[in-house]
Every structure is written in structure tokens, then in C-alpha cells.
Amino acid sequence: GTPQKYDPTFKGPIYDRGCTDIICCVLLVIAIVGYVVVGVVAWTHGDPRKVIYPTDSRGQFCGQQGTPNEYVSWLTPVAHRRPGITRETITLGCCTPRLRDRQLALPRQLLICVSKCPDRYQTYLSAYGSRTPSELEYYRHFCVPEFKNLQKAPIEVLKDKECPAMIIPSTPLARRCFPAIRAKKGVIMVGNETTYDDGHGRRRNVTELLEGAKKANVVLETRQLAMKIFEDYTVSWYWIIIGLVIAMVASFIFIVLLRFLAGIMVWVMIVMVILVLGYGIFHCYMEYAKLKGEAGSDVSLKDLGFQTDLRVYLHLRQTWLAFMIILCIMEVVIILLLVFLRKRILIAIALIKEASRAVGHIMMSLLFPLCTFFLLCLCIAYWASTAVFLSTSNEAVYKVFNESACQFSGQTCKPETFNTSNVTKLCPDAQCLFAFYGGETAYHKYLIILQFFNVFMFFWLANFVIALGQVTLAGAFASYYWAFKKPDDMPAFPLFSAFGRALRYHTGSLAFGSLILAIVQVIRVTLEYLDHRLKAADNKFAKFLLSCLKCCFWCLEKFIKFLNRNAYIMIAVYGTNFCTSARNAFFLLMRNIIRVAVLDKVTDFLFFLGKLLIVGSVGILAFFFFTQRIKLVQDTAPPLNYYWVPILTVIVGSYLIAHGFFSVYGMCVDTLFLCFLEDLERNDGSAEKPYFMSPDLKKLLKKTNKGQPDA
User: Fold this and answer.
1) 72-129 tens-digit pLDDT
2) What pLDDT score does 539 carry?
3) How far apart are the first and last CA of the chain?
4) CA dihedral 253, 256, 261, 266 (to 10 degrees)
5) What's the rounded Cα separation, in Å, for the pair 420 and 172?
């Protein structure tokens, strides 16, 4: 590209500008209106209760207000398969749930709502033959609501499928009843029995229920783990908040100190990170040495397998050895990078000092990420709620089921008119039962397209919000750089001025850039979905091709993000459209590729070290506190099931807080760097074309303004 020429009228971000990329602005408005319409339609047809509450064989919800029965249970298996059934759900066993779009596999199982799950083994014949009326009355809780005649012959009751042939002990989970399977000394048991009566005079082994309940047991273990984690959060949430506040204060203090002591802080930060990693290596070695000779500590991670109690891994020497190796590699890599880039660090420090001054004059910029975060939360909330309503907007579909041969078997029916139809006359044992959620209207046929549109709009709007934040910060910091006398020549409210210009003139350009990025991201999501679907396939060529496509589009997404970021800076400064800004930014960077590769990446590396220092310091403090290793506050730390729960929460939260603060700094450095390159091309330091850069940058680059004192 051609270097920028001197323009005597250019004094920073152009105020006399016009609207750009109007067509994309109109498309965005139309898309948002369509998105609102899709949301309204989804909220009209959808019913989130389908996700939360189970349904019986009639499609009625269990556990709803006004419904006394809270759990879903099953009735007697009948030797007839339900049409369209797959093996993708939990099969066999008492009280298994009807998952949303599929019914249970193997024998047809009728689902009913019950007030509680069964707690004993019992067959209907044994309950009917019992001399205790309470036994039959208890059993009646697991019959259809219409069953009232306790004197009816058992063979007729089972033939009419009014009661189950048997019940077994079950455990409630998410308003559904699962078989209470457990292992005792290697023996699989349900309740306290290893066999059960199937209600037809045959004794069966409980292992026949095991295959169908495997997934249920995984869910139960996961639920137990989740409950312990929830308990830890309930007793430590205020300490977690204190830890996050400490991270916020540390990030703010760090940025304030950078303004005055950038050079010292950068070197101190580098040394502190090396020391933190060094302590981590020392701690891992001490734990590794302490476990030497202890029983069970030499078990390998592969032999141990996955354990829900993660504390088990901390009693293995191999775990601490792995941690120590990882930290050693990180330590060596950081030291080598510092050795080879030591001369460039001084230039990076100068940019950070300049950014510190810019942020110091525009302190509101540190709070601006909260606005972006709030808008992103709105996008996520709207997308998630719309997705839930779309996925639950199918209608209940009822099918004809029967035991004997019937020409109407599997056909759609309506419960309201079924008893008066010809089906009951031709097939006396036929029933009209709830099969699954679906629909045959135009709306239901295009549900997948609406879901795709929902995902696409989420990416588009999320990228637009991020772009709006970037162009706003870029406009504010550019007004600082191009002020010859800083801060006297800066506008009164640079951040609000830049935000107003972005919305008024460049909504279309932001929509254009975010649209391109959203298309690439949707393609990546589609490829991930296809990869998930092809995991069970044996087509190696398809898997290889898919992996190549995923890699290519990942690289493309990274490049577009980099190009968009610099294009938004040019938009904020010059007010040109997206394509022109992207082209100018790209050529400007290519003309200074060495400076871009070194200065920009060194600065990013230093910011990463700053995040690592804050997160590491707060994480170590949280570790010592929650493990009760600080004697002064040893009694204050709450008792926990897993002390890693609040520690990881504090670490992740600290990183997000530090990232929010440093993202402002990163945008400031990128903006000043692009403006700095423009300044070098436009001006030569003469009286007619003076440099706008700060005295420190001019001194570092050995540049001067001839005939004029430095601002």
C-alpha cells in the first residue's frame, strides 16, 4: 500500500463525517426485528415446563401446581414395541423417565404421575392376595388414577393395564424415579435383594436392570457431586466475593501504578511471575517428596481412572509430578523469551507508559467494559430463553398402541375422540397414548431453521456489542494521541463522544464486520456438530477432512478478529467504511510488519504476565485460606467438601476481572500503536509537519520536532 501523506487539516478523529455501510445497518435492523418476531413466536408456542417437569403417558405434567403427584413412574411392560422407539434412552427398570423427544425402549412402558417412588419389592398378585388391606392400598398409588375397584380380578387388572405387574425400590431424581441400584461387596443389589419377581411368576436377577440404569447411576453420582459443590458455595460465597474484590482492587492498583512506575512495575511483574512459578515448583516437589512411601501414592492416573472425589488425585505422587513438570516448562519458556526479547521490552514499556497516561486522562474507560458485559449478558439471556422456548414448542403427539394385530397401530390419534372412534370397535385393546413431542404444521417443520437463525443472530449481536466497545475505546484513545498539547487539546468527554459517533455514523460498519465474523463462527459451530455426529463413524477420510476444515476456519476466525480490531481503530479515527478501513489498517501494518510482530506481541506478553501475577497471587492467597494454612484466620475458613471449588472460582473470577481491566489497556496500546505508525508516515518533525507522539516516544526513537518545544 501507499504510505499516508501529510494532511494539514487532520487533527485527530474526524468530527465532520457521514454514515458508512448503510445497507448493512438496514440489514441489521431488519434482522433484529425478525429476531424479535422469532422470540415472540417461540414464547407463544414454547413451554419450558417440558424441560423441568416429567410427563405421564397422557402428556400431562407431574409436579405442577394443582397436581398432587410429583414424580413420574412406569406401569407394567407389555410385550409390544412402541413405534419409532430408539435405544438412545435409559432402558428397562422401574420408574425410568420419559425423555423429551423419545420414549423408553424395549417393552412398552406406560408412565404415570405418583406421589412418591416405591420403596419395596412387590407384585400385584402378592398385594392382592395379602390379608392386609393396606398392602393393596399402597400398591394402588402406582396404578392409573381411574383404578378404584380393588375387588377386580388381578388377571383383568393386568390385562387392562391399570396396575403394574410389579414394583421395585426406586430413588427420586429430578422428579423421576430411578431403580435404587447399588453394589455391596461386588454384588449388584436393588434395595437389599439380588433377584425380583417380574409379576408373571418368574424370578429375575437385578443385573437385568443394570444396563438400563447405568446412565441413571451416573446421573445420581453427578447429582451427589453437584450437591456437595453447591454446599461448598453456600458456606464460602462471601469469601469468594472478598477474593474477587481483592482481585479487582489489585488490578486497579496495578494499572494506577503503571502510570507512574511502568518500567519498574514491568520488571517487578516479570520477577514476581518467575518467583510465583518457582514457588509452585517447590511446593509440588515438597508434596511429591512427602508422599514417598505412603500406601497407594504410587498408583498411576491411568490405573485410577476418573473419580468424582477429586481429592483422591492429590494423594498420588504422579499428580504432583505432572504439576511440577508443567510449571518447570512454563518457567523455562518465560525465561527464554525474556532473554531474547530484552531489548524490545524497553519499547514496550514506553508504549505502556503512554497508555497509562491515556487511561489516566480517560479514567471512565476502565468502567466501560461493564457496559459491554451488560449488553453481552442481554444477548446471552435472549438467545438462551429463545432457544429453550423453541426447543419446547413442539406439540404432544398421541399414537395408537395395542397388544394384538391392528391396522391402526402406530397411527396418530386424539384422546378426546378416541373412545368414540372406529378404532376401539375394530381393536378393543387399543389405547391412545402420548408418544412424543412433535408437530406437522409449517411452524414445526421449520423449527430447525429458526434454531439456526437464533444461533446466527446471537453471534452477530454479540460480535456487534464487542465491536461497539472496541470502536468506542479506540475513538477515545485516538483523541488523546492526536491532541498536540495533551490533555488541553482533548475533547471534554472523549469516551461519550466516541460512543455517540460510533452509534450515529458507523452502526453499519460495525454490523458489517461483526456479520463476517458471525458467519465464520456459525460455520465453525456447524463443523463441531458434524464432528460430534461422525465420532462413531469409521470414515477416516471424512474425519481428516473435517479436522482440516476446523483448523482452517479457526485460523480464519483469528485473522478476521485481528483485522476487525484494527479496522475499527481506523473507523474511529477517519470515519471511513469498513472495507476501506480494513484495507488501510492491513496495509499500514504490513508496511511495519517487524514493529507489529515485535512491539505488539511483546506488549501482549507483558499484559499476560500482569494477568498471571494477579491471578496467581490471589489464587495462592485463596489456596492458603481455604486449606486453613494461614494460622491467623485458620478458624475463620469454612469447612468444605472440596476446597478446590472456591479456589477455582476465585481464580477464574480473578482472571475475568484482570482481563476486563487489561482489555482496556490492550485496546489503548493497539490504538496508540496504529496512531504512532500513522504519525511516522504523515509527519517528519518539521515545523509544518510536527510529530504528535509523546516526548518519551520521540526520545526512544530519536525523533524531534524542529523549531517547536515538545508538548
Assistant:
1) 555 444 333 333 322 222 222 333 333 333 332 233 456 777 878 888 777 888 888 7
2) 75
3) 31
4) 60
5) 38
Q: What is the DSSP string of 659-710?
A: HHHHHHHHHHHHHHHHHHHHHHHH--SSSSS---S-HHHHHHTT---TTS--
Closest CA to 676 of 347, 365, 387, 429: 347
The chain-wide mean pLDDT, for the chain, equals 78
* Spatial distance between the Cα atoms of 510 and 502, rounded to a whole number of angstroms: 8
Q: Among 240-244, 349-353, 529-533, 600-604, name the one with the lowest average pLDDT.
A: 600-604
Name the DSSP class of 596: I
Residue 39 CA neighbour count, 13 Å, CB half:
16
Look-up: residue for cell 488541553?
488
Evaluate the CA torsion angle 335, 337, 340, 344 in order and state its sign.
negative
Instruction: Kindly tell me if the per-residue pLDDT of 8 is higher than 70.
Output: no
Tell me the C-alpha distance between 467 and 568, whole Å: 7
**Cβ neighbours of 333 (radius 10 Å):** 10
- Among residues 457, 373, 519, 448, which one has the least CA distance to residue 29? 457
Stretch 237-244: mean pLDDT: 86
- Give residues with Cβ within 8 angstroms of 652, minimum separation 6: none
Verify cis geometry, omega within 30 degrees of 0, for the bond prior to 54: no
Instruction: Give the C-alpha separation, 655 to 664, whole Å.
Output: 14
The x, y and z cell numbers of residue 336, run together, are 527464554
For residues 680 and 27, what is the distance between their CA atoms, to the nearest angstrom? 38
Alpha-carbon torsion 652, 657, 663, 666, what sign?
negative
Q: 3-class SS at 482?
A: coil
Mean pLDDT of the 174-189 span: 63
Buried b (16+ CB within 10 A) or exposed e, 636-660: ebbebebbbbbbebbbebbbebbbb
Q: Are 97 and 176 in contact (CB under 8 A)?
A: yes
- Phi, psi dihedrals of residue 600, rounded to the nearest 5°: -65, -45
Asked if residues 435 and 398 have their Cβ atoms less than 8 Å apart, the reply is yes
The C-alpha atoms of residue 50 and residue 399 are separated, in whole angstroms, by 19
- Residue percentage of the chain with pLDDT more than 90: 18
Residue whose entry in the numeric block shows the C-alpha cell 481503530: 569
Total Cβ atoms within 10 A of residue 212? 21
Q: Tell me how far apart the alpha carbons of residues 110 and 106 are, in angstroms, rounded to a whole number.
A: 12
d(CA 214, CA 91): 9
d(CA 214, CA 216): 5
- Percent of the chain at pLDDT > 70 equals 79
Lowest mean pLDDT among 222-236, 360-374, 460-474: 222-236
Confidence of residue 566 (pLDDT cuts 50, 70, 90): very high
In whole angstroms, what is the distance from residue 576 CA to residue 137 CA?
80
Residues 6+ away with beta carbon under 8 Å from 376: 462, 465, 466
Q: Parallel, antiparallel, or unpaired for β 176-179 and 170-173?
A: antiparallel
Query: Which uninterrupted H or E stretch holds 353?
Result: helix 342-361
- Where in 346-505 does DSSP place strands (E)? 395-401, 412-413, 431-438
- pLDDT class for 216, splitting at 50, 70, 90? low
Which string of DSSP letters, residue by residue, matches 234-271?
HHHHHHHHHHHHHHHHHHHHHHHHHHHHHHHHHHHHHH
Q: What is the pLDDT of residue 328?
A: 93
